[in-house]
Amino acid sequence: MDKYNNKETIKNTSFWSTFFDVTKDGKSKFSYRMKRWILVIAIHLLFFLSFFIDLQILEGTLSGSRFLGFHMIDPYMTMEVFLATFHLPINIIIGTSTIVIVYLMVGGRSYCSWVCPYGILSEIGEKWHNTLVNKKIIKSRKFDHRVRHIFWTIFLILSFTSGFIVFETINVVGILSRMMAYGWSLALIWVLLVLIMEVFFSRRAWCTYICPIGTTYGYIGKVSALRIEWNDSCDSCMVCHDVCFEPQVLEITKAKYKKQIDEKNITDAYITGADCTLCGRCVDVCHEDALKFDFRLKSLV
Ligand code: SF4
Ligand code: SF4
Questions:
Q1: Residue with the nearest Cα to atom 3 of ligand 1?
Q2: Residue 281 Cα: closest atom of ligand 2
Q3: Which site from 52, 87, 247, 270 is most exposed, i.e. has the minimal number of CB atoms within 10 Å?
Q4: Which ligand sits closest to the CA of 207?
Q5: Ligand 2 centre from 57 Cα, in Å?
Q6: Average pLDDT of the chain to the nearest whole number
Q7: What is the CA(219)–ligand 1 centre distance, in A?
């Protein structure tokens, strides 16, 4: 319930309160964070049930799965497999095409916020990290987020040169997804190390700087239909910047652009940056209701 907090008080908002939002008429409702967590947990519960009681709704893991018989394959995994083996079975081609079409509709990096199990863990780590920074126990370290494109390329080159899908050995998303479907493994230690790095070293570092899966979905998201829409009731309070771990996509909210926007008579605009994960945190906290989800193609429907 942090919507009507200001920039100063939002830092001290409890994590639990961010799962609820309050409407203008004072009614409490689930925030986007709550809706996302419910979806992520539901997806992985279905993976778990497919393995343990053979409930054939959603089978497999996030790298490769079947939903009601439809194949779904992670696009980055497909590129790795192709570069490592120069062979793509028809099921992989169909599964990858399905996923690309789905995310062209629902926003590329929405995968990171609405599907990825590490996203949940990382949000908890982000809260711990921010608390430690606010108490001046640690410093917040930021790097150039474009380094993720270099990692994206390096892991593909490694697949090509080694004939092995190298990234999958350190892929925290795949490790967690397999763990939830099939049970614990020692690889969980690596996931915890990455989380510790995020808590004590750099906010949401894996998602921001490393994960090539999110980067691939970002490329798809550039042209996807579902986006966040901004409108000119924004007062540039910068609360959305504080809660967003990819704040570079929210440049339009900065006061320095206000004059330019007024001159051009822009009343609304889509947040089109590839890095936006459509997490909805900015929508949850905007006290002017200047941000909302919008379907870019609705005029064509
Ligand atoms: S979009 Fe909303 S939260 Fe972001 S700066 Fe504008 S008024 Fe503040
Ligand atoms: S712009 Fe909003 S929806 Fe996009 S990542 Fe930032 S907080 Fe999430």
A1: 286
A2: 7
A3: 87
A4: 2
A5: 30
A6: 91
A7: 26
Distance of CA 194 to CAs 125, 149, 187, 189, 204, Å? 10, 19, 11, 9, 10
Burial of 35 (0-12, 13-18, 19+ CB in 10 A): middle
Beta carbon of 18 within 6 Å of any ligand 2 atom: no
134-191: pLDDT as tens digits: 999 999 899 999 999 999 999 999 999 999 999 999 999 999 988 888 888 889 999 9
Q: Which whole-number Å values give the CA distances from 19 to 29, 40, 42, 176, 272, in the listed order?
A: 9, 14, 16, 23, 25
164 Cα–ligand 1 center, Å: 45
Q: What are phi and psi of 114, to 5 degrees?
A: -105, -5
Atom 6 of ligand 1: nearest residue by CA position? 234
Pairwise CA distance, residues 301 & 271, whole Å: 21
Q: How far apart are CA 202 and CA 142, in angstroms?
A: 7
Please give the structure tokens belonging to residue 243: 């809660």
pLDDT in tens, 237-283: 999 999 999 999 999 999 888 888 888 888 999 998 899 999 999 99
Q: Where are the beta strands (DSSP E) in 6-140?
A: 20-22, 28-30, 58-60, 64-67, 70-73
What's the CA gap between 233 and 37, in Å, rounded? 29
Candidate from 2, 4, 13, 234 with most ligand 1 atoms within 8 A of CB, to mutate: 234
| Nearest alpha carbon to residue 64 among 76, 52, 55, 53 | 76
Question: How many whole angstroms separate alpha carbon 148 and alpha carbon 213?
Answer: 10
The per-residue pLDDT for range 12-69, each reduced to its tens digit, is: 788 998 999 887 777 889 999 999 999 999 999 999 998 888 888 889 888 888 889 8
